[in-house]
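Demo today. Your pick:
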Amino acid sequence: MTWNVRIRRMADDDWEDVVGLETRAYAALGLSEGRAALESKARISPATCFALDLIPGPGADPGAGARLAGYLLALPYPERSYPGLARREEAAVPSRNLHLHDLVIAEDVRGRGLGKRLLGRLTAAAPGQGYEQISLIAVGGSHTFWSASGFTARDGVEAPRGYGPGSVYMTMALPSGQAEGDRTAVGGLPIGAPSREEVG
């Protein structure tokens, strides 16, 4: 089956699916936050939080519908600091650093570049909003994915407590002059084995 990929801003009716994806990605690591904490982070910066939909293309089962297959949450946060897990964020912190708090892709479509598409949407949108850098905390062995995506571990930043063993604080300077894109066709996205590369 051919799928179309649509990346859009988060909507109120996305949260049940987002919480399901987040729980399946992080519960085994002891890092699941819960809906209230996730929603609070999205409310801080709705222009840098995105949902990824898979939409059946030509030849699809007539009963098949669109599904939310991934999401990304990012919010302004001072460099070398980060949001607490499961803590509600009350107000935006002025910063030219954008913290990518969470990116999750559904288990059955990981390894197909969808995480990189979400990241690409963020890096295209962020410079126009005044951000100069993106930071994140790689968890569960995902630092190899983030390194391949242009992030570098920062020396002198203590491993975050509460983010699990082996967590790594990483940053990437934002490129300039990229164009945003919302919709890209993907041919025959097959069911893939779960991987950690698009979680963290």
